[in-house]
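Journal club side-thread
Mid-discussion, someone asked how the predicted structure for our own chain would compare to the paper's figures. Pasting it here so we can look after the session.
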Amino acid sequence: MTRRLSPARVAAVCVKEVMQLRRDRLTFAMVVMIPLMQLLMFGYSINTKIRHIPIAVCDHAASSFSRQLAQDVQASQVVRIDRQVSDPSRLEEMVRNGEVSAGLFIPHDCEHRYYAANGQPIAQLLVDGSDTVLASALKSLGHFPFVPGDVVPMVRDPGNLAVTLLYNPSQRSELNTIPGLLGLILTMTMVMFTAVAIVRERERGNMELLIATPVQTVELMAGKLVPYVLIGLLQMSIILWLGWMLFQVPVAGSWLLLVGCCLVFIFANLALGLLLSTIARTQMGAIQLFIFLFLPSILLSGFMFPYQGMPELAQHLAEVLPMTHFMRIVRAVVLRDAALAGLAGDLGYLGGFFVVAMALAIFRFKKRLD
């Protein structure tokens, strides 16, 4: 015989669940913070109208005409002139190393080209085509209507720029996506796996066995990391191999440099995961902390939306995330054949992040039962 549904009993269970949520502060915070984070980050990071893209200028004319050209290009607000260089080859080097997104070369005869009125471009814009969204925004400058101040627009057609897309002239989106997926997958697996490592030992009762052994904290941490380093390298090999076989995304740069950079990134993520495992009390709590950090990594690192299109506050937050720095590194090596010197800043940050996160994890870890 079935019992009648009692609203009082349902209400009692609801009250109990609410009280449980109040005691579980992490879960309660996630209920509020995840929607708030998604709203703020999606609202700020999704920007299809990109402005103030950093570029470098090489002005061989050094005339009032060329200076007005550079000023008018910047006045379009699509780009922001960050550097002035004297050698045109330096422009391509800076684009390859990710120092700027484009380089504007103004030849010595730019004014003659304009007044010759033969349709010849008056200057050249070298664009990093590896980021298809940025490349599309910069490509629009090819039809930039430049008219000097002493010319009536109705008398002469405006001058234009020759836009050259480097590294991805066909603007294939997979060339930008596949290297980014390497950073995404390594972050997801390395941080999440290690985030539950210490917590799992505590929940399964294995911590008592570890307490009874002479294993030191550093030795335990190292033993936890090594298997996942091998897993990370295996994942890297699978992603890059399938990217080449299925999507024709070759590695343009040095494999040795790429493996070394991936190792630094893997260690940084593993240290972050271990740090999370010393904070969380349960495996579910560790996973919740991981989600709390993983969402910003997806949205702010440049994987989905261009870094240059985000507001300054979002960029500052993105700089804290290891995935932001690895996105720059992996795309620079895989697509642009960047040299080690151009990656030094981002690699240095990842190395420092590993040292700090690992030190905090070791400090917080106590080889005892709570």
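Post-session note: The CA atoms of residues 40 and 314 lie 10 Å apart.
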